[in-house]
Amino acid sequence: MTSLDKHQALNEQLQDCLALCAAGNSDAFAKLYTLTASKFLAILLKMIPNEAECADVLQDAYLSIWHAAHRYDPAKGKPFTWMLVITRNKALDRLRKQSRDRAVETLSTDLVATLKDESNSPHDDMQVTMLRDLLVPHISKLKPHVAKAVIMSAIEGSSAREIGEHFGVSTNTAKSWIRRGLQRVRTDFERSPAQDRLYKLIN
Questions:
Q1: Mean pLDDT of 191-196
Q2: Which pTM does this prediction carry?
Q3: 78 and 149 fall within a common domain
Q4: Which of 5, 9, 131, 196 would be 1's cystine partner, CB 3.0–4.6 Å?
């Protein structure tokens, strides 16, 4: 049997399994997992070089496949490809989350470094930490370069020209980033309970 024949035979089995999964057949789901898990794990490991992370992603992917089995349409594509798309999307979601988490961590560190002063009292340091916890969730929703521009402008006191030079963009572009970023943070902040907490903190 050629590799093409094997792939065709696999797709035929997967199609049957998905049809049974759609009807709630757990045995068919177990078979579907056995037929594909090692293949998908190998693909995931090329995207996320962490076996534990990949195992989590794989579990999420198969849970989605189980719940979405009734939506699989053989007329629109092969079952292996359909399942692979779901698995890859889960991996991409995980990678995006990791990227956001790293950005939030960096942003948090930057804010503390900017606000903290060697002459601060323990009370001042506590206020800095609280201020960071209040602002980071809102600023972190911005694109990383816009968030950094907002911090440089509003907290560090850098000019639009200096920010433009830092990023290698024009002064007008830097101004646009700052304006849009501050508008977004202000709107998001005004919709949250954090506004009252910040008022109590600074008064």
A1: 54
A2: 0.54
A3: no
A4: 5
